[in-house]
Write a structure and sequence with these properties.
By secondary structure, the protein is an alpha+beta fold. The protein has a single domain, classed as L-amino peptidase D-ALA esterase/amidase (4-Layer Sandwich). The chain has 5 helices and 11 strands, in the order E-E-E-E-H-E-E-E-H-E-E-H-E-H-E-H. Strands 1, 2, 3, 4, 7, 8, 9, 10 and 11 form a 9-stranded mixed sheet that branches. It has a two-stranded antiparallel ribbon with strand order 5-6. Helix 1 crosses helix 2 and helix 4 crosses helix 5. The longest helix is centred in the C-terminal third of the chain and has 25 residues.
Length: 326
């Protein structure tokens, strides 16, 4: 397998990503969208999720496709980024039609970045505007690290960030991951090696060497346990394989293995770990569940790499309470 040409989730043709960043507040929002509605699903494994419109993504619901997905900082306030995106899409005439009404479907997930040293005393919730700005910025090329939903993200010992990665399977199917890394755990071991190092391709997060995990119990106590309910890893997996919503749900579920391989510990009661899966439907499956198995595995590998890349690309802001790995 090889990476796509950009090593970004937008290597999956038809999808675009936009970021909006406020360095003063130390927060931001990220929008994942396409020119056409796309199949989407979700799976939650964290104990403290924050979401909008995720119940409708179950395979037995009447809505099978969505118009955008949003990842945002801001905890519960950040869910308003989805409202901004919905308003902007409706103004463009994009959404489900029910008589004269136009209703964009914009499932969203948030991470907690309210105690990272930014100026949080806003007079008006900023996230609706951030969502609109991120949608307007949606493109094939986008930045990683301390931007969008990753702007104010932290992990146990270092700044987190926004990460992305892609793979092209031998079948020609492309799989990509996009993630906001704000985990309670750490993406690196105590010796400074990424847990995701076995999956690194072409030195994409520094080539720092393989993690040995010499004392995994000791590492647990280096998590940010003093700030419980302030963490999460929220992600999107995309593919051009034509998936049903049930198949997309299986991909989202399998992708959580990527979090478990890249963050230590993962899926804690205090994380809101969540993965969306999105299918553009461009490439029919040629080999049924066997091909789906390969896509699920690629999703988990991409997500591990994207997590490490998000931490690797983080940059310092004034007043940060965590250092950058670089």
């Amino acid at each position: 397998m090889k990476t796509g040409p950009k090593n970004l989730i937008t290597d999956v043709a038809g999808f675009r990503v936009g970021n909006a960043t406020d360095q003063r507040i130390k927060t931001g929002s990220t929008v994942f969208t396409a020119d056409q509605p796309f199949t989407a699903a979700v799976h939650v494994m964290g104990g403290a999720p924050g979401t909008r419109e995720t119940d409708l993504l179950a395979p037995d619901r009447s809505v099978q496709q969505v118009h955008a997905l949003v990842l945002s900082g801001g905890s519960a306030f950040g869910l308003d980024a989805g409202s901004g995106v919905a308003d902007a899409l409706a103004a463009r005439g994009i959404g489900l039609r029910a008589g004269p009404a136009i209703i964009p479907v914009v499932p969203s997930a948030i991470l907690f970045d309210l105690v990272n040293g930014g100026e949080k005393g806003w007079a008006e919730n900023p996230y609706k505007a951030l969502g609109i700005t991120a949608l307007d910025a949606a493109a094939v090329d986008f930045e990683l690290g301390s931007v969008g939903a990753g702007t104010g993200a932290n992990t146990a010992r270092h700044k987190g960030g926004l990460g992305s990665a892609s793979l092209v399977l031998p079948s020609g199917v492309t799989v990509g991951a996009l993630v906001g890394v704000n985990a309670l755990g750490s993406a690196l071991d105590l010796q400074g090696h990424f847990h995701a190092a076995p999956f690194e391709m072409d030195g994409e997060f520094g080539g720092l060497g393989i993690s040995a995990l010499p004392d995994p119990i000791a590492e647990t106590f280096h998590t940010k346990v003093a700030q419980v309910n302030t963490a999460t890893t929220i992600a999107i997996i995309a593919t051009d394989a034509a998936l049903t919503q049930a198949q997309a749900h299986r991909v989202a579920t399998a992708a959580h293995d990527g979090i478990g391989r890249a963050v230590y510990p993962a899926h804690t009661p205090f994380d809101g770990d969540l993965v969306f899966a999105a299918s553009s439907g461009k490439r029919p499956l040629q080999n049924g569940d066997l091909e789906l198995m390969d896509i699920c595995h690629a999703a988990s590998v991409c997500l591990s790499r994207a997590i490490a890349r998000g931490v690797w690309h983080a940059v310092p802001f004034a007043g940060d309470d965590k250092p950058c790995i670089r």
